[in-house]
């Protein structure tokens, strides 16, 4: 793994952009370029590459913390952690070979373990950023508990780079479970949801609950004895090559994701019941629906809202680009939007950082 | 900062009387006296007026009126905070949320509960016990502190290492903004679109909005929990054992450490059968399925012996487990009994720095000729050194404050923070100048202004003015500490 500090260069580029009124498109590994609004602004747009700024700054396994530059390859970080029997607990999707830690945090996406261990934002302890004014600031730190100042680090998670260019990130990590296995039960969607709700209320060592195509997948992780005892309590078959299955779900290489329609992501309460006459892949113990649909965006969004959730247009299909919408992310309450605009104005007053990608006015 | 003049206060009073019943407005000396401080009794200030609304609409009206008249507002839960975060203002309204004490909904299938901000932390776990669920964050004051205050301070507790802080255990907040609008932050789902305002609000010490409803996440109660008490003849060895447990891939539900002065005080007070000759003890709690706990207990017992533990005791039943914890949980009042006064610090450090910091604290203790009893959330590096002193001895208080300031400087130097869980409030506002640079403090003010441009919500707390930091000369923490007296509390 290379160790290259390009802080100065990145800061100079942002400062120059301020002077030249150039808009910057922040790119890490470019693996999640599809996520967020299409770039529709006609102004001058330069690419700010963060992959050049890479390397582990500190990692002491017994501290359960790793600090790395934003451009560090996610794959390299995960390999290093695995050598030490540890992992990124939020299972960030890569969506490409060159995915970076910065991209994982800027998009804030979390994998199947999320209901049981937590999300990307849950594990961020500290960040160092360049604001849209070209100023370098540090927030949080490497300690588990820190209540000094507002939690700006977590504010960066999922902000798609629109509040600052991520330079360094400290993440809490967890030990790899000793044992992991997956049980599969053949079951209808309604029964699967019911079973998920029931399991979700038990102290079994669960680490994922997903449903697709008449099958409920139950992943168990933890001490060997606990996992095997739980396995006995749960009926069904043990899945061979279970790691492949979960990876295919997380990376969207599972056959389900091959479809000539737009891909929607619905984040809903566990108890939601989404019925859109479309096949879906349910993850997060019922709290996340992946849905292929070319239905009207309003209809899909309304279904999610009725259930207390929100729908995001995750990916459009190449042939059906006409079905794209101006805003990929769901609308916000007016006052909440105003607060977000206020924050954007403070962190990036010239609107040069990934402007419009999260919302057209942020 | 906006200050209320006599005139607009008169006008505000009239308006408040129109929207609130008489009994919900407190103004006389004896009515307002109970609100003059929070858990940090060193700071006292009676508010101009106390209001006790019962409905969200009333809170909205109060904030709208205060905003119209430019009168500052301080929100208050149970008033158990330890940093003066709920300290009232002489010219301001003290907004008590004590009447918001109902649990509105329990949804076991969604593993969540909707509660009003004045509900006590422990009351949530008690209310959901019948579903075999609980609310994980457990600050020591959980019997009295309220969930609204927990969110405002991002409260921690003994079980943070495994189960996280308040920020990890809430889904949604309803907030009344400074101008009286009701907004929802977060959602009933796990992810919410847009910037993560839920994280920003958590721990914001009442500076950005007033919390009027909280949806908490609930967890299934673990099947089994057992605690090991390990004694050591050397604090450094105990500190190293903490790292060794975690290095082995075990995340204990709780991992606490006490040194000899704290052990003796606690044993005298709680009679938990602690080994009073030990230099340090560790309390290591493991929870999970019965099989897992049984397996891990054996493993950790062996590990602690290898790391030099001189004796081990493992709880055999729930009664013994609670007894072992009782000593730790009563450590503060126990220390309060052996010393006329004590000053509690709340610094957090990277765990590997524990032996180094302990050694330095012990050296400083000799230098200042003041005893220290150390109580730590060792698993997450959160230190609570209690400096023992006697305020009646001339100069001892000043030495204590200087000593405390040095400890916080050590924490920042070691890569840690001035406050792990008690908050900045009024108390640590000067140490913020040590922790953060001008640019960062400026952006904190910018964040405040994004929500509260006229600085009417809890003004003067949590973030120091740049002017104040400049006057303190940046690094001279003890100069800052001198400005306030300490500090018998808890």
Rg of chain B, nearest Å? 23 Å
- Derived from helix and strand composition plus strand pairing, the structural class of chain A reads alpha+beta
Radius of gyration of chain A: 21 Å
Mean pLDDT of chain A: 95
Q: Please give the alpha-carbon distance between the first and last residues of chain B.
A: 31 Å
Question: How many extended strands of chain A?
Answer: 17
The neighbouring-strand order within the major sheet of chain B is 15-12-14-13-17-18-16
Blueprint of the fold:
The complex is a heterodimer of chains A (362) and B (490).
Chain A: H1 7-20, E1 23-27, E2 45-49, E3 56-60, E4 65-69, H2 74-83, E5 86-87, H3 101-107, H4 114-117, H5 120-123, E6 124-130, E7 136-140, H6 152-156, E8 165-172, E9 174-175, E10 179-186, H7 189-200, E11 206-212, E12 215-222, H8 224-233, E13 237-238, H9 242-251, E14 263-267, E15 280-283, E16 288-292, H10 297-306, E17 310-315, H11 334-347
Parallel strand pairs in A: 1-2
Antiparallel strand pairs in A: 3-4, 4-8, 5-9, 6-7, 6-8, 10-12, 10-13, 11-12, 14-16, 14-17, 15-16
Chain B: H1 6-19, E1 25-26, H2 29-32, E2 49-51, H3 56-69, E3 73-76, E4 93-96, E5 103-107, E6 112-115, H4 121-128, E7 133-134, H5 147-153, H6 160-163, E8 170-176, E9 182-186, H7 197-201, E10 210-217, E11 219-220, E12 224-232, H8 235-247, E13 254-259, H9 260-270, E14 280-288, H10 290-306, E15 311-314, H11 318-329, H12 331-338, E16 341-344, H13 354-368, E17 372-377, E18 382-389, H14 396-413, H15 432-435, H16 438-451, H17 466-472, H18 477-481
Description:
The complex is a heterodimer of chains A (362) and B (490). Chain A is of the alpha+beta class. In chain A, 28% of the residues lie in helices and 25% in strands. Chain A has a five-stranded antiparallel sheet with strand order 3-4-8-6-7. In chain A, strands 11-12-10-13 form a four-stranded antiparallel sheet. The longest helix of chain A has 14 residues, at 7-20. Chain A is globular and about 65 Å long. Chain B has 490 residues and is an alpha+beta fold. Chain B contains 18 helices and 18 strands. In chain B, the strands form four sheets. Chain B has a seven-stranded antiparallel sheet with strand order 15-12-14-13-17-18-16, with helices on both faces. The two termini of chain B are 31 Å apart. Chains A and B meet through β7, α6, β9, α8 and α11 of A and β9, α7, α8, α10 and α16 of B.
